[in-house]
User: Fold Spermidine/putrescine transport system ATP-binding protein from Poseidonocella pacifica.
Amino acid sequence: MTAPVSIQHVDHWFGTYQALTDIEMEIAAGEYITLLGPSGCGKTTLLSVLGGFIAPSVGRVLIGGADMTHVPPAKRPTTTMFQDYALFPHMTLRDNVGFGLRMGGMGRRARHAKAEEMLGLVGLADAANKRPHELSGGQRQRVALARALAVSPDVLLLDEPLGALDLKLRRAMQDELKRIQRAVGTTFVHVTHDQEEAMAIADRIVVMNAGQIEDQGPPARIYQKPASLFAAGFMGEMNRIPAKASAHGIETPFGQLPLAAPGAGPLTLCLRPEAIGTGAGALFIGPATVRDAAFFGTHCRAHLSPEAAPDLTLIAHLPAASCPAEGETITLAADPAAASVFEAA
Assistant:
């Protein structure tokens, strides 16, 4: 089962602290959404509102068209999967996965069949009789996912479910989560502070800051053309170049660019490190001194001081095969089509 979600003008206060401010969002049935942002931005509070653990101070939450704003968690068509998997150590995996079905009154034979089906979905078909202590962290995460899906929720809420895993396993589980979500078609809402994780799994990323939605859209658009200066900086490394409006677009330390200025005051030109290179580009940055460079396998990450703006430090991702030496001078250029311009903070 799956269902759309409608969040309508939700505010929430903890005492005098406003954790959410006018959150409005539509989630399509079967969509994979990630709520992305720094600690304290409100993403977990919003997930708790969706799960019924917190009632919003203002606004409504609809799931499948039904008003769920004041419906308790146990009566909502949602399941929440937390970072702490909370598996029962004395139960087999079959009984762990079937626990919610047992609480719902399903008979033993039917719930065992459903539990084994879910264990098969997450690649643990042969482990039904094992107990949690016999599993790796990644396998326990799969069991928790199987248990959450066994009750056929319309919406699955995931609160940083991969945070306890090491990098290699986390990346493997990102692929698994996406595969499983596609297989079951359930609406997933996934909280994370990891930008790479959000881009790897989401149909749509919702960037949050200070209790508000800063930007939302497909991962490629959010990364390449962010809607705000905060979203630009939070979605990965970004070069921030001071600029100002001019008669022909914007003026930078490296010359004029025919880009629309969002305001008449000070501006910030944002360029991703991979948009800066040693080849041709309409934005000629000119000679720059390498302060340091490190090999990252797929690229060489270098800090550079451009002669045209010596107080500015640029980060560039250069070809891995030609990592420059410290103190070397190289000539840089960039593609202004990859730039975003915002009013300076």
